[in-house]
Amino acid sequence: MPPPADIVKVAIEWPGAFPKLMEIDQVSACVPVWSLANHDQFALQHADSSNFYITEKPIKIFAQNAQQLHERIQSSSMDAKLEALKDLANYSRDVTFAQEFINLDGISLLTQMVESGTDFGDMLSFTLTAFVELMDHGIVSWDTFSVAFIKKIASYVNKFASDISILQRSLAILESMVLNSHDLYQKVAQEITIGQLIPHLQGTDQEIQTYTIAVINALFLKAPDDKRQEMANILAQKQLRSIILTHVIRAQRAINNEMAHQLYVLQVLTFNLLEDRMMTKMDPQDQAQRDIIFELRRIAFDAESELNNSSGSMEKRKSMYTRDYKKLGFINHVNPAMDFTQTPPGMLALDNMLYFAKHHQDAYIRIVLENSSREDKHECPFGRSSIELTKMLCEILKVGELPSETCNDFHPMFFTHDRSFEEFFCICIQLLNKTWKEMRATSEDFNKVMQVVKEQIMRALTTKPSSLDQFKSKLQNLSYTEILKIRQSERMNQEDFQSRPILELKEKIQPEILELIKQQRLNRLVEGTCFRKLNSRRRQDKFWYCRLSPNHKVLHYGDLEESPQGEVPHDSLQDKLPVADIKAVVTGKDCPHMKEKGALKQNKEVLELAFSILYDSSGQLNFIAPDKHEYCVWTDGLNALLGKDMLSDLTRNDLDTLLSMEIKLRLLDLENIQIPDAPPPIPKEPSNYDFVYDCN
């Protein structure tokens, strides 16, 4: 007969004694073994570095530990103090202990120790680690810290450049201060300059580089609108882009997820500087703005303009201007300034056109003259195209949107040029003109051409070209003919037979396909997933793991020290939630953690990955999936457990794919063909791989 569920076999270790393998149901089982007095003051704890508790630990034990450590870190013995700070850094990860230690005014004690400036090396490192862990729980407001403390932390960024652990934690604290308090942002901005941060990017430690870019991003994000452009100018002067390109992107090592996220955030914040111009309408009465249009005309029709400017009546000149503006492809030939009153793209489109005309003059003149001389209605209107293309590029790059908390989608090519957006536009406007000619388009086909161009750009971007030249060459291979071939191939792969017998066959086999998808989802829940605990400071990531029991009755979950390699065993996850107790599964803005105040609420991408399990009267388990795929798997699986329909995009795609495959298999002519019961053997590996060609 199997033992009761609450009886477990564990090896229990007491300091100074040999571990013992025991079957236990509670701590009291250990009492006769080691003669423990006051056994109600003990709890079972993992012996690994995580220090997580297996059995529930009474609050009074946390209070006791907090009191002891509060006294020990004030010890006059340096060795005892160091050991105490090491323990404090470890215990502070537990929220209950943190609350008790903070209640003893522990944060003030740690800040005083930092401000005193008497601790160095490991002692200072453990002090800062404990501080970071305690503050991460969000119990204490960041607004409570003094200027002296901020100055001290800022000084460590320069003073301890060679001490990785101190530098790391100092940068993490500065980032949290900036992100969590407007007042502290101003104080930190006064203490830390970009010039002081740049040298840390030129080192070889990727973690320090990540923390450094995170601080720069935080300062950038929290800067007032009028200061943001000023900060961007300083970053340009300090050659931040080229330093990141050389020492981070093109360094001889892989870029980890956190670094990729920070580069993505920097990319988004840089492009968001364009939002002001994107949302600024042109003032038709503003002479300086109208002069830009005159400059476009002058560059395109230079010789002819000079010839005609010297003579002729005002009426003749107006007529000539109208003709030239028509050749430039503006919608309003009389007053082209009116074309730039729509936002987006506003004045940003005109900026792009002027940049193209000045920096790629030959290509600009060729495109304008080539199209203005056509009489067959196949001319590509440069002005209208540039305005719509700028709007499209802003949508693709999500100009004006906050960076996502989970996205790592940075593009190396945007770090290869100081005017990357303008260069991006210049490549794409030439692509648009080329595609227009390949399609033999007329003005009625304008929207069709724009759709093809968007597809070409998106397909080229997904390959993550390392430079703008590489992006250009990718586009060369994505001609209109190639796009048609790709579309044809995709249509054939997703062919949907609409005849009545096929539809009846689909209806018949759909339930078994849905059952197959359901089993796959539940199997994935049994394997489990590691979720990130998102907070305002991503560097010291906290992870937790959730998985379904093999009998589909219980959800096991618990905190982790770091992202796991492979599955996490059920018995190492401390908490349980019976499936029978689940009342509902909610997603997006209906989730409790998305209704709270903070940056996450405003972030569209995080909203799309959020879901919550509601249980009992007010219980909730909040999730933010690592990506869209995991979000679909978990919401489908949880709905399946509750007997509800699986409605995710992933289920629809899987259903379409599996139905299509099954129907094609059933329609195969297999008469007199014997299908083997066993799969064919896997061939042996070749003796060498000389035949492999690296396309990159």
Automatic annotation (TrEMBL):
InterPro entries: ARM-like, ARM-type_fold, ELMO_ARM, ELMO_dom, ELMO_domain-containing, PH-like_dom_sf, PH_domain. One of its GO terms (biological process) is apoptotic process. Keywords: Apoptosis, Phagocytosis, SH3-binding. It holds the Pfam family ELMO_CED12. One of its GO terms (molecular function) is SH3 domain binding. GO terms for cellular component: guanyl-nucleotide exchange factor complex; plasma membrane. Residues 288-461 form the ELMO domain. PANTHER family: ENGULFMENT AND CELL MOTILITY, ENGULFMENT AND CELL MOTILITY PROTEIN 1. Involved in cytoskeletal rearrangements required for phagocytosis of apoptotic cells and cell motility. Acts in association with DOCK1 and CRK. Was initially proposed to be required in complex with DOCK1 to activate Rac Rho small GTPases. May enhance the guanine nucleotide exchange factor (GEF) activity of DOCK1. This is Engulfment and cell motility 1.
